[in-house]
Amino acid sequence: MRLSKRMEKMQDKELLRLMELADDSDMISFAGGFPSPETYPLKEIRESFLEVLDSQGRDALSYSATSGYLPLRKKLAKRMNDQYNTMLTAEEVIITSGSQQALDMSGMLFIDKGDIILCETPSYLGALNIFKAYGAEFLAVPTDSEGMIPEALEERVKEYRNRIKLAYVIPDFQNPTCRCWTAKRRKEFMSIMQDYDIAILEDSAYSDIAYEEMERPPLISLDVKGQVINCGSFSKIFCPGFRVAWICAKKQMIEKYMLLKPSIDLSSSSINQRMIDVYMEKFSLEDHINEVIELYKKRRDLAIETMKTSFPQCVEFDLPKGGLFVWIRLPEGKNTRTLLERALLKKVAFVPGGSFYTTKGKENEIRLNYSNMSEERIVKGIQILGEVMKEFLG
Ligand SMILES: Cc1ncc(COP(=O)(O)O)c(C=O)c1O
């Protein structure tokens, strides 16, 4: 069968294999990026679903408006405005089927073959893969623990200004590194970017999973030109199974996304949007998020403590201030893909950091997810990984 040329770029079989390993109950898998199912508020969700079926069942089982269920869009606009002093209206918020769909639509909207996407390095593989399928090339901007380095950004944007169509960034607790940009770097980023005609896609999938107070204004709140498209999601703070997420942007930009949405899925799930709306009406989403944070923070602390006592001294990692991952560095020159093969024999999995780079060469890092795992398995898995590392590093 002759497949599209695009498929040649969708060859990351390693990640698929790792995700499938997550289903092996003997495997202690730190590879996923999944929220913990024990946080899903089942009783409240059941009650909300029943209310939706009783009071609006026929509408809930129909197609929704392409832009999404208006009361939910209003709530999301208000939530952003209350949290971040934005001035969004409901018309500037649309619902998508997961933020993965927002990323896909962004690729469709902005990218022609050979266009450049400016991004962090490393970055979210699910986004890089989509953009690649649309023919994008990547220009990675050196990034340190505070965010993109302004001088490096300026230099690259200046040089490639005519080819860069989109900047894709995850300023809050980035996947995979969990780094969080400082407020200063966010301002510097926006101040540089506002001189160029380049759209900015701000992925806020992890924004709400913060373990400490930090000043971190979303880029959309610093946007004076209408350049920023911000995407958020219920996946990590509520349940990924509903596939409900959102895009916020200026009306002119939202209209472009609206042109694409019907040809992709007609609309996002009506019943799921209405259920979430009723849930937000009857219960406190913010209280729920705080409970989720409390659990993940406990798991983060346990993971870090166990790493400190189990990993060889030369292995480095920072304390993540939010998100679902720890980013681990082995000494330069060590290849964590080889380490993975050895760990798999001992029934422990993780994602080698090299998978998250736009170019080959950086292979000494690891992304480790701790959110979706019992305390007992966190300790056991990290201790085993420590043993495998000690053998591997000699
Ligand atoms: C950075 C980032 N963006 C977007 C997504 C997609 O999330 P969803 O489609 O479940 O909203 C993920 C999923 O892990 C992610 O890590």
Q: What's this entry about, in short?
A:
By secondary structure, the protein is of the alpha/beta class. The chain folds into two domains: 5-41 and 287-393, Aspartate Aminotransferase, domain 1, CATH 3.90.1150; 43-282, Type I PLP-dependent aspartate aminotransferase-like (Major domain) (Aspartate Aminotransferase, domain 2).
Notes on the protein architecture:
With about 400 residues, the protein is α/β, with parallel strands linked by helices. The protein folds into 2 domains: about 5-40 and about 285-394, Aspartate Aminotransferase, domain 1 (Alpha-Beta Complex), CATH 3.90.1150; about 45-280, Type I PLP-dependent aspartate aminotransferase-like (Major domain) (Aspartate Aminotransferase, domain 2), CATH 3.40.640.10. The chain is built from 12 helices and 15 strands. It has helices at about 15-20, 40-60, 70-85, 100-110, 125-135, 150-160, 185-195, 250-265, 270-280, 285-310, 335-345, 375-394; strands spanning about 30, 95, 115-120, 135-140, 145, 145-150, 165-170, 200-205, 230-235, 245-250, 315, 325-330, 350, 350, 365-370. The strands form 4 sheets. It has a 7-stranded mixed beta sheet with strand order 2-10-9-8-7-3-4, sandwiched between helices. Strand 5 and strand 6 form a beta hairpin. Helix 10 (about 285-310) runs parallel beside helix 12 (about 375-394). The longest helix is centred in the last third of the chain and has 26 residues, at about 285-310. The chain is globular and about 60 Å long. The relative contact order is 0.16. The model has no long low-confidence stretch (mean pLDDT about 95). Bound molecules: pyridoxal-5'-phosphate (PLP). Pyridoxal-5'-phosphate binds near residues 100, 203 and 240. Pyridoxal-5'-phosphate (PLP) binds next to helix 4.
